[in-house]
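Progress report, Aim 2. The chain analyzed during this reporting quarter is listed below.
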Amino acid sequence: MSRVVDKPYFTHSAYSAFTTGIQVKCPKCHGAGVVTADDDNAYFRCLSCGHRMTQDRTVYRYDVHNQCKNCGRYYRVDIEDEAKQHYSVLHVTCPYCGATMPGAVHKTAEAFSYGAEIQGGKDPWFGLELWFLTSFQGKPVWALNREHLAYLIGYLSAGLREKPPGRAKMTQADHLPVFMKTAKNRERIVKLLKKLQEK
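Predicted structure tokens for the chain:
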């Protein structure tokens, strides 16, 4: 009986972009590309056509803060509309008295976007479709890269799955949806994953 020892929780997650990269489909040629990241930016590079993109990982806050010329109170109005964030001055309404007046738009770096998780089979920074993506009974089944794909195949096809030694409570398998770990589905999902390996 084959046995596998599970990996630590963050081994294969969106954080993989920092180390091994996330394999995605190029928006231009639909060939294989890779998304990587460092502290400041996320990067996309197509391995087929050479297309490149860079995305700033800093999250900015846009607001107008001013003293109301009508009631004299200080206020701050957040600008959520991305189209309006590029103006240098906007007319905003005082939240206290309702008077409308112009104010300078301030841009402040607030935090880093960690692009926490993969949503809908797309990478968290550019929204590009993952290269290793298929579906099982209408649910997405995906791998971040070849290393993650090999882990999934090994883990799901093993007869015995163990937690790693030590005190780690969460493991990589805790990321997996229940339908993937269910005994009756595992064999069919492994077949789908092996097909993805041929890409």
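Residues 70 and 99 are 7 Å apart (CA to CA). The mean pLDDT is 86. These observations will guide the mutagenesis work planned for the next reporting period.
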